[in-house]
From TrEMBL:
<dbReference type="InterPro" id="IPR016035">
    <property type="entry name" value="Acyl_Trfase/lysoPLipase"/>
</dbReference>
<protein>
    <submittedName>
        <fullName>Cytosolic phospholipase A2 gamma</fullName>
    </submittedName>
</protein>
<dbReference type="GO" id="GO:0005654">
    <property type="term" value="C:nucleoplasm"/>
</dbReference>
<keyword id="KW-0443">Lipid metabolism</keyword>
<dbReference type="Pfam" id="PF01735">
    <property type="entry name" value="PLA2_B"/>
</dbReference>
<dbReference type="InterPro" id="IPR002642">
    <property type="entry name" value="LysoPLipase_cat_dom"/>
</dbReference>
<dbReference type="GO" id="GO:0005509">
    <property type="term" value="F:calcium ion binding"/>
</dbReference>
<dbReference type="GO" id="GO:0005829">
    <property type="term" value="C:cytosol"/>
</dbReference>
<keyword id="KW-0442">Lipid degradation</keyword>
<dbReference type="GO" id="GO:0046475">
    <property type="term" value="P:glycerophospholipid catabolic process"/>
</dbReference>
<dbReference type="GO" id="GO:0047498">
    <property type="term" value="F:calcium-dependent phospholipase A2 activity"/>
</dbReference>
<feature type="domain" description="PLA2c">
    <location>
        <begin position="12"/>
        <end position="475"/>
    </location>
</feature>
<dbReference type="GO" id="GO:0005544">
    <property type="term" value="F:calcium-dependent phospholipid binding"/>
</dbReference>
<dbReference type="GO" id="GO:0005635">
    <property type="term" value="C:nuclear envelope"/>
</dbReference>
<keyword id="KW-0378">Hydrolase</keyword>
Amino acid sequence: MVEHGELLYPSLTRVSSHLIRISRDISNHEKQIVEARKCSVKKGLQKFNIECSMNSEANEPYELQLGFGGTSTLDKVGSGGGLRAMIALQGILGELQEQHLLDIVMYLCGVSGSTWCMSYIYEHEEWGKQLSSLEDKLCHKLVNPHRDWNKALKSLVESSKDDTYSLTDFWGIVVVYIIMHELDDHHLSDEQKICKNGIVPYPIYAAVDATKLDAAANQIHSDIWFEFTPHEAGFFNPGEFVDVTFLGSKFENGELKEKKNEMKMTYLRGLWGSAVANFKEDMTVLIGIWDIIKCMYKTLTCILKWKWGNIYTYKYIDLKDKNLTDKTDIQLADASIVINSAYPLILRPERKVELILSFDFSDGDPFETIKKTNQYCEENKLPFPEIDAQNLDKDKDNPGDCYIFKGNGCPTVMHFPLFNKVNCGGNISDWRNRYKTFSLSYPEQDIKNLLEATKKNVKNNTKNILQMLKAVANP
């Protein structure tokens, strides 16, 4: 008898070994795009009269990696924070472009609410040139909601028929829909053409293995982290990736058995932004939304089991991770539960990070991500600047707008708390209270005020960023 997947996709089953990649290295697709992006980075640096010194071994310029919440050459790392983080990242990117810094950013990494902004802008080709209009469209969409609940209900019922249905489906189709006012049918693989020629930073989205969240010790291990790029998805430790268009399809020992449709962005937004998945006791958000739609028995079952991010695993006999060889599925959740920034993804040695722009959108301790990342790096023997946690704790209720952490043989980190004494004056607590993480909407003026505050963090520190760029480019 012919397997269902073999009948429908005979050519795919023959080449399915190419759909799964066993390696700690980044993909060839990413390498090619990073190489193309270097041209933009070089031109961007030259605008500021910054020339990279030569790598004597390879006789080529040093790669300057910049990142958001982790970006390479210059990497930009965006933290989580729900709607607040989504709006804040939009403002940060707009001001980076205004200050001619965006072209120098190699990677754009995000968790939770930052991924909502990323998935929004990466629908548009050459979005770096459209950030002003994209900001206007986003503001209009957020304050002028148009929701088609018939379409949402139909989508939810259809999703519930799948064996892997979980609360992530509900969260994406209902909760994220309430916040973003759209059911996004585009796919992550669509972003391949957006970043194909290195025109924009390469995007990396973060999630974590939800089955390992109960043990605190697991949360500083690198094998809990799962990354998504436009080309592939997987655990970078021990190095197990699948073509992103086949994530969720059924595999057996590396052979494709049943091709599933590629996950829609609505589902992925629910997965990336499902921080409530770690708070089994706190059901207030779900209960508040529950009156909107009395869902099926299957959703109730998922709530009782607290089942999130259920995806068929890409089982392969050579995989080192028993989670992928012994289980039929994996469960993924919002990475902000572990570290509210995508540091583990951008700190992979293969990405050669030199300078990280860490824009922190947390509503609590603005240094928690830095301190947790320091612990993570110590546990996983990764180079990271020395952090004086006690000194940072003194500033947590009244932080400045820029902190620089550097050392020998490690990336330089520039950390920018969202709400600080420079852009908020003496009213930091008022700003934090106004922009709660679980807010489903903000008034139009609050959105504009938040955008303005985030832009100040870039504008006021452009000189500091350029100073660090020069130092990293010419060590």
